[in-house]
Amino acid sequence: MATLKYSRQRESIKEFLMTRKDHPTADVVYENMKKIYPNISLGTVYRNLSLLSEIGEIQKLSNFGSADHFDGCVEPHCHFMCTTCGDVLDLETEGMDDLIEKAGRNFSGKITACDIRFFGTCPKCMNK
């Protein structure tokens, strides 16, 4: 694979995601990048999010019932989606490797990863 040319905008998008725990959509990333790069286009943000996801620098979270969300943490962890407000949050979990091992006991293939999603009401909505 060819070496990827450095991009300040792409690096800024990655850094922005690394500071977040709320898994923003591309539109939220775009609105925040416009503050730094007033001339950045939504297409540039989408292309960079797609590229960062493809090369494993960020996670793209799809199928949460709405727009894709993006996560700067690529370490194995679970996610929670609030069915009231739609926020997607990290769940700090232990034992992901144990879960993969247990799931593989009755499976003749090889499990290399898992993606666990929980749904319910977040603390913010519970306190309303």
From TrEMBL:
<dbReference type="InterPro" id="IPR036390">
    <property type="entry name" value="WH_DNA-bd_sf"/>
</dbReference>
<keyword id="KW-0804">Transcription</keyword>
<comment type="similarity">
    <text>Belongs to the Fur family.</text>
</comment>
<dbReference type="InterPro" id="IPR036388">
    <property type="entry name" value="WH-like_DNA-bd_sf"/>
</dbReference>
<keyword id="KW-0805">Transcription regulation</keyword>
<dbReference type="InterPro" id="IPR043135">
    <property type="entry name" value="Fur_C"/>
</dbReference>
<keyword id="KW-0862">Zinc</keyword>
<dbReference type="Pfam" id="PF01475">
    <property type="entry name" value="FUR"/>
</dbReference>
<dbReference type="InterPro" id="IPR002481">
    <property type="entry name" value="FUR"/>
</dbReference>
<protein>
    <submittedName>
        <fullName>Transcriptional repressor</fullName>
    </submittedName>
</protein>
<keyword id="KW-0678">Repressor</keyword>
<keyword id="KW-0238">DNA-binding</keyword>
